[in-house]
Specification:
Endonuclease, Chain A; 11 helices
Length: 266
């Protein structure tokens, strides 16, 4: 195992340069020469040539017969792993107080898909973005919830009444505000369920909160103690971010139990 780690550490060292990483991702977009790429990234020819040589010696790039360089299979694969490091390193302060909670390891390994996102901090900003996801929905709203902010119920129901499908998963231990049942009754929530516009399920304990529509998503990870936290979120309309969230919702949905209102307490 030591030999394997030594070999891997060598390649990590080869990537430990902003310019070498930039070269890799530029070549991921299109083949190029050191001279052309030096102009594109505003760097000296000598420096770029030196980094091309190092990347070629490491087997990450190779020269084609037309004189241009391209990524090898190894190089392209390495590029798929870098976004995960980018996401975690960019949000290192956040992950000093949060973790991935109950999110399966297979999704954690794909966290690079979350890299192109905005970190939103503060309850009021979080709730405002949450409302925007409702407002921007035209087809569906999917949620995995550990808490029910009362002032979000009415704008949600308004969208459902316009034909937006609502699927959600509730935690058995969800924080339910006083007055929720009365408000749902007033807004005709049961009738919307009867019409098939609302489907709901239940999980034993939700730590990671998810809110999404057909084109954007919000994701809220739990604290290190395993408590849900809706004071901070990651938001994005990036396609890869959305794909991760949609896959995670489907994973949770098909693994959830039948919804039982009796388990919720105001």
């Amino acid at each position: 195992m030591t030999d394997l780690f030594d070999e891997t550490a060598k390649y990590v060292l080869d990537l430990a340069s902003p310019q070498r990483m930039e070269i890799l991702f530029k070549l991921l977009e299109k083949n190029s020469t050191p001279t052309a790429l030096a102009k594109e990234i505003d760097a000296t020819k000598q420096e770029v040539h030196r980094n091309f040589t190092r990347l070629e010696d490491s087997g990450l790039i190779e020269k084609k017969t037309d004189g241009k360089y391209t990524l090898t299979t190894f190089g392209r694969t390495m590029c798929t792993q870098i976004p995960s490091l980018v996401f975690v390193s960019q949000n290192r302060k956040y992950f000093e107080e949060h973790d991935f909670g109950e999110v399966p390891h297979k999704f954690q390994m794909r966290c690079g898909q979350l890299a192109n996102s905005q970190h939103i901090k503060g309850v009021s900003k979080v709730l405002e973005q949450w409302k925007c996801v409702y407002k921007n929905s035209n087809e569906y709203i999917y949620e995995v919830l550990s808490e029910v902010p009362l002032d979000l119920i009415e704008p949600l129901v308004k969208k459902i009444k316009k034909g937006v499908k609502f699927n959600y998963i509730f935690s058995e231990s969800a924080v339910v505000p006083p007055g929720r049942k009365a408000l749902l009754k007033k807004l005709g929530f049961d009738k919307l369920i009867e019409k098939g516009l609302i489907e709901r399920k239940m999980e034993k304990n939700v730590q990671t909160v998810l809110v999404m529509n057909e084109k954007e998503a919000c994701l809220m990870f739990p604290t290190l103690d395993g408590d849900h936290d809706i004071t901070e979120m990651f938001y994005s309309d990036d396609a890869m971010f959305h794909e991760w969230c949609l896959d995670y919702f489907r994973y949770c949905w098909y693994g959830s139990d039948v919804f039982k209102e009796s388990k919720l307490k105001e």
